[in-house]
C-alpha cells in the first residue's frame, strides 16, 4: 500500500485511550499490529512505562514509536542520574513535546497519549499531535479508533473544558472500577466498527500504590 | 440535422463525462469513495453439487459499514452467486441477471443453466470495461451437472473445482489448497468452506463477522444464513448508559409558532348534480 517509492512511513493501526481520575489514571491500548489488510501480530504492546508514575501509549508507525520510547527512556535515565529522583509526569509531558518538535521536519509518525499522576497525586493525561503540540486534559483517545471513541468519552465523562477550569481539575469523578469498565466497553465498541482495532486490550492503571496491568480479549476478526 | 446527443444510446459505457471528471480530479476535487465489501467468498464442488460460502462484513475504508450483510445472492432457485468488490455493483449486476434468467425461464419453460447466468454476467461486465467492479463466484446445479465459475470485473471467467475471491481470497485459498480433494461429502464440503471463510475472517482485516453458507444439489438448495457466528461481542458494560435530560448541553433554544392552514375542496360534480336535480324539480 506504499503511495510513492520514497514514502518512509507505514501506519500500523491501533487505538490508545487515557482517562484521568481523582487519584488514579487509566491508560489503555489494543495489541494488534497491522499493515494494509494484514495482521502482523495480535500481541504487540503499545504502552511504555516511563516512570513509576508515568505511562506513555502511542499508535501510528511502530518503527518510529519504538525509537521514540527508547529515546525518552534514555533521557529519563540521564535525568535520574543528574537529579537523583524520577521525572514527574508534567515534566515528562514537556520532554515528550520537545522531543517531537525536535523532529519537526521529519516527524515521528506517532500519536501519543501520556497518562500518570502529577506532583499532587491527581490523575493527569496529556494528549499530543505528531509534532509535539500538547495539552493537559481529563481524557483522550488517539489512533485509528479515536474518532469512534472520543464522542462517547465526551458524553460520559463530560469534563468541563480545561479553558474554563485549571486543567488539573478537569478529572472525572468516576471511581477506578467504573473508569476501567467504561474503557473496556468503549474498546469493545470500537473493535466492532474499526478493522484496525482488536485482538486484545491492555489496560494499565496508575495509582498511589503503583502500576497495575490487566488484559481483556477483544474480537479477532 | 440530428445532433450526436439525440441518437439513442446503443449500450456499453458512455464516455461523455470522462473529460469533465479528469478536469475535476486535476483541480483536486475528490470522488466520493465507493463502499467495497472487502471480502472473502469461496465455492467448491463436492459429490452431489456445490457449496458456496461468504463472510458478512462490508467496509467503507477502515470502518465497518455493515457487520452482517448478505453476500450470497439469489440468481435462480438452483443458482446462487457470491459477490466481492463494490457492494452496489455486485447487488445490481446479480439482481439484473436474476431477472433476465427468470424471463428466460418463462420463455423456454426450462430450469436455468449456470452457463446462461455466466454468459449474461460476463458480457455485461465486459461491455462496462471493468468499471462495474464486481468479482463473483457463481455456482449451481442444472441438468448438465454441478458447475462452479469465477467472474472478474473485466469480464473474464474461469471454471474451477474450488475458487476464492475478495481481499481474503489468499487466506481462504491456502485452506482449500491444503485440504481439498475430489468427491467430498456434503458435511466435509460445508466444513471445508466454513474453515476457508474463517481463515479469511481472522487473517484478513477486510473480512469479518459471520460465515454464510449455501449448499446447492440436484433438486434442492439450502441457504444457511449465519451458519457460524465466531465473533460475539467480548464485553458489555453491566452498568449500562443513561442519557438524562441536560447531559447534552443546550446552547440555544428557539420557539417557532406553526399555524395549520386548512383547505376546503368543494366536490364540483356533486354540486352540479344536485343543482341539476333542483332544476328538474323546479
Range of strand content of chain A: 25-35%
Assembly annotation: heterodimer
Question: Approximately how much helix is present in the residues of chain B?
Answer: 25-40%
Q: Tally the helices of chain A.
A: 4
Q: How many strands of chain A?
A: 12
Helix-strand makeup class of chain B? alpha+beta
Overall 3D form of chain B = globular
Largest interface: A-B, 30 and 30 residues
The averaged pLDDT of chain B comes out at: 89
> Could you give a short account of the major beta sheet of chain B?
5 strands, antiparallel
Low-confidence region ranges of chain A: none
Based on CA inertia axes, which overall geometry of chain A fits? globular
Listing every helix as H and every strand as E from the N terminus to the C terminus, the arrangement of chain A reads: EEEEEEHHEEEEHHEE
Q: Please state roughly what percent of the residues of chain B sit in beta strands, choosing from under 5%, 5-15%, 15-25%, 25-35%, 35-45% or over 45%.
A: 15-25%
Please give the radius of gyration of chain B in angstroms.
Answer: 27 Å
Question: Order of strands across the widest beta sheet of chain B?
Answer: 10-1-2-11-12
Q: How many strand segments of chain B?
A: 12
Q: Which secondary-structure class do the elements of chain A indicate?
A: alpha+beta
Amino acid at each position: 500500500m506504499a503511495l510513492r517509492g520514497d514514502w518512509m512511513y507505514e501506519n500500523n493501526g491501533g487505538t490508545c485511550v487515557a482517562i484521568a481520575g481523582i487519584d488514579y489514571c487509566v491508560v489503555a491500548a489494543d495489541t494488534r499490529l497491522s499493515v494494509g489488510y494484514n495482521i502482523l501480530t495480535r500481541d504487540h504492546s503499545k504502552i511504555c512505562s516511563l516512570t513509576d508514575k508515568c505511562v506513555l501509549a502511542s499508535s501510528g508507525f511502530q518503527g518510529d514509536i519504538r525509537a521514540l520510547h527508547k529515546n525518552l527512556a534514555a533521557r529519563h535515565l540521564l535525568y535520574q542520574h543528574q537529579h537523583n529522583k524520577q521525572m514527574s509526569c508534567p515534566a515528562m509531558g514537556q520532554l515528550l513535546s520537545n522531543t517531537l518538535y525536535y523532529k519537526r521536519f521529519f516527524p515521528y509518525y506517532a500519536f501519543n497519549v501520556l497518562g500518570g499522576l502529577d506532583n499532587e497525586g491527581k490523575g493527569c493525561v496529556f494528549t499530543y499531535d505528531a509534532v509535539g503540540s500538547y495539552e493537559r486534559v481529563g481524557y483522550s483517545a488517539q489512533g485509528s479508533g479515536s474518532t469512534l471513541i472520543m464522542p462517547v468519552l465526551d458524553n460520559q465523562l463530560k469534563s468541563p473544558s480545561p479553558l474554563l477550569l485549571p486543567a488539573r481539575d478537569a478529572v472525572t469523578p468516576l471511581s477506578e472500577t467504573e473508569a476501567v469498565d467504561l474503557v473496556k466497553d468503549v474498546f469493545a465498541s470500537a473493535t466492532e466498527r474499526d478493522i484496525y482495532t482488536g485482538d486484545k486490550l491492555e489496560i494499565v492503571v496508575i495509582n498511589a500504590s503503583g502500576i497495575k496491568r490487566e488484559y481483556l480479549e477483544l474480537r479477532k476478526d | 440535422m440530428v445532433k450526436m446527443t439525440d441518437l439513442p444510446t446503443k449500450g456499453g459505457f458512455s464516455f461523455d463525462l470522462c473529460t469533465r471528471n479528469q478536469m475535476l480530479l486535476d483541480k483536486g476535487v475528490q470522488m466520493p469513495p465507493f463502499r467495497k465489501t472487502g471480502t472473502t467468498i469461496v465455492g467448491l464442488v463436492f459429490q452431489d453439487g456445490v457449496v458456496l460460502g461468504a463472510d458478512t462484513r462490508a467496509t467503507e475504508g477502515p470502518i465497518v459499514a455493515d457487520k452482517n450483510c448478505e453476500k450470497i445472492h439469489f440468481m435462480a432457485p438452483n443458482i446462487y452467486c457470491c459477490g466481492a468488490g463494490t457492494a452496489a455493483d455486485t447487488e445490481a449486476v446479480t439482481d439484473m441477471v436474476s431477472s433476465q434468467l427468470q424471463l428466460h425461464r418463462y420463455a423456454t419453460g426450462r430450469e436455468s443453466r449456470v452457463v446462461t447466468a455466466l454468459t449474461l454476467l460476463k458480457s455485461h461486465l465486459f461491455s462496462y470495461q471493468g468499471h462495474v467492479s464486481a468479482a463473483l463466484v457463481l455456482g449451481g446445479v442444472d441438468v448438465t451437472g454441478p458447475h462452479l465459475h469465477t467472474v472478474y470485473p473485466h469480464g473474464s471467467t474461469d471454471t474451477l473445482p474450488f475458487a476464492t475471491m475478495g481481499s481474503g481470497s489468499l487466506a481462504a485459498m491456502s485452506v482449500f489448497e491444503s485440504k481439498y480433494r475430489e468427491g467430498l461429502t456434503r458435511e466435509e464440503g460445508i466444513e471445508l468452506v466454513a474453515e476457508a471463510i474463517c481463515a479469511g475472517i481472522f487473517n484478513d482485516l477486510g473480512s469479518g463477522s459471520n460465515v454464510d453458507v449455501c449448499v446447492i444439489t440436484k433438486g434442492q438448495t439450502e441457504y444457511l444464513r449465519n451458519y457460524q457466528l465466531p465473533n460475539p461481542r467480548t464485553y458489555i458494560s453491566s452498568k449500562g448508559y443513561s442519557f438524562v435530560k441536560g447531559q447534552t448541553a443546550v446552547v440555544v433554544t428557539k420557539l417557532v409558532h406553526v399555524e395549520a392552514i386548512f383547505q376546503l375542496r368543494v366536490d364540483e360534480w356533486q354540486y352540479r348534480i344536485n343543482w341539476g336535480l333542483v332544476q328538474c324539480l323546479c
